[in-house]
């Protein structure tokens, strides 16, 4: 990762679904202070270890750059949640962020911060790709108005849908697989026949230009999307070769006008 120029790692207490917290432990074991990555992690509200004091102030200050609320905790008043995050910020333990937060809740968070003189979240983490662009309409303008960055995940694969593995029934060992805890849910999410026909047609047209949907998706989000220089692209991969390919795609530069038009009309 260092050789590829990657210096930030995104993790969370919720990952993975069947063994929450393991990635945080592995990162802690693998990174020496002299070779540390900038780490962004998230607090979730229903894992066995969250809220039990496992993340002490010392380790947080030493290693965590941004602590996200993976979601707002419905059992705790929002004002109390934001106050607790601000206590960490004021003591220089970390920055705060929000993840997958509905626009209405984010407005409430920002209003509470303004009313109480609290620091606002510095960034928002959410889904963003060729087929998930709703955030451009309302969420992104709200973030810009309050000086918040957007860190997008799912940019390259759209939950693996753009790999065409689902439409070609080649989804064994992917996140669509029934063995995956979220496999059936994700299959239903992309079960729309019109959407599946669209990705098949998209793939066919790109092959004629010696391109793949995944390459076009990542180059589009890097060079042609609504993201700005201070925003981030979160890459989710499971193999070293995937990391190399995915990082290499944006470095090929912008897409041609014809391909951008094809992508924008996908």
UniProtKB/TrEMBL annotation:
Gene Ontology MF: a single term: oxidoreductase activity
NADP-dependent oxidoreductase domain residues: 3-248
Keyword line: Oxidoreductase
Gene3D superfamilies linked to this entry: NADP-dependent oxidoreductase domain (3.20.20.100)
Protein's UniProt keywords contain Oxidoreductase: yes
Protein name in the entry: NADP-dependent oxidoreductase domain-containing protein
């Amino acid at each position: 990762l260092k050789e590829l120029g990657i210096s930030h790692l995104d993790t969370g207490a919720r990952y993975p679904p069947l063994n929450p917290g393991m990635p945080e432990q592995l990162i802690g074991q693998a990174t020496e202070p002299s070779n540390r990555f900038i780490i962004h992690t998230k607090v979730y509200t229903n894992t066995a270890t969250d809220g039990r004091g496992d993340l002490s102030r010392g380790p947080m200050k030493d290693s965590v750059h941004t602590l996200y609320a993976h979601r707002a905790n419905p059992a705790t008043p929002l004002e109390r949640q934001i106050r607790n995050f601000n206590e960490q910020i004021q003591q220089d333990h970390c920055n705060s962020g929000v993840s997958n937060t509905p626009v209405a809740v984010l407005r409430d968070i920002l209003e509470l911060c303004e009313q109480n003189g609290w620091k606002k979240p510095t960034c928002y983490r959410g889904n963003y790709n060729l087929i998930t662009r709703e955030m451009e309409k309302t969420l992104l303008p709200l973030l810009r108005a309050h000086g918040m960055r957007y860190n997008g995940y799912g940019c390259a694969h759209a939950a693996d849908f753009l790999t065409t593995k689902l439409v070609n029934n080649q989804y064994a060992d992917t996140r669509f697989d029934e063995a995956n805890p979220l496999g059936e849910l994700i299959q239903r999410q992309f079960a729309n026949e019109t959407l599946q026909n669209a990705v098949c047609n998209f793939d066919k047209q790109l092959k004629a230009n010696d391109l793949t949907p995944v390459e076009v998706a990542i180059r589009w989000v890097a060079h042609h999307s609504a993201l700005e220089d201070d925003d981030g692209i979160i890459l989710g991969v499971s193999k070293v070769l995937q990391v190399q390919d995915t990082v290499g795609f944006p470095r090929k530069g912008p897409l041609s006008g014809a391909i951008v038009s094809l992508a924008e009309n996908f």
